[in-house]
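TL;DR need structure tokens for one chain.
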Amino acid sequence: MESHEQDGYARQQAQTQLQEGVSVQPLSSPPSANEAPVEAHMGSFDPSRTLNAEAGLSIDVKNTNFYYGSKQALFDVTLPIRDRQVTALIGPSGCGKSTFLRTLNRMNDLIPGTRVEGQAQFDGINIFDKKTDVVLLRQRIGMVFQRPNPFPKSIFENVAYGLRIQGRSAKDIKERVEISLRGAALWEEVKDRLNASALGLSGGQQQRLCIARAIAVEPEVLLMDEPASALDPIATLKIEELITELVKDYTIVIVTHNMQQASRVSHFTGFFLSGKLIETAPTATLFEHPQRKETEDYISGRFG
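>> reply
TL;DR here they are.
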């Protein structure tokens, strides 16, 4: 259900809020002749150096079940999401990781017949409570989807869109657009063509524009559903480098099929299988010393 509905979710999200199929290899495998070492890609960034296992909880998910009609897709998921850390969700296609991600800002509400049980505490509110203001929630918990979905507007207006809805002043909008484009590492590439159509940007630039649009309204959490899967390796690298900068100011939850990517950018990793969270731990611990056989089999490439 996750894969064939993804484009539909992206279109719906573009209308309602301010959005790697890579083969599995063991993480211990050395880089191929055509692949630069991770250190060369990510500079000095090492998630283990900035891991804060005692960081406060940004979102505390407990005993969550999710249903598409009568079909249960998530089973008793409990996951602490720590403040200003990157949490990666991995697992084979259809395992529930994207469904889980979308519960965190109620995007699944757009699908008729769905329902969720459990709790996800965020700043004193239960995200799943029917009384929760989902418009405000989606401003505080932004989302970037798998495929870039810029609006058919100028680069400037894409970033300004949510700010205009909030009723910001023209001066504030202008300032926030520049700050957001700089935050998404895009300003230098587009500052001389802000009035040009966003649809003329490359795929990687469009995805960074979508990130700029998401952070323009100053959220506290960013959800990223395979944000680099539709991009080439160079554009993917820029997104990964951007994540390592954004986490200084935002809590980030990323779904990825690429375990090397998870190891490069995340502090914590959760492994999903058949709708269940099998194991979660600091990323280095989970990849090097998995506690569950299912986890070990997946990260070693025995299935997935």
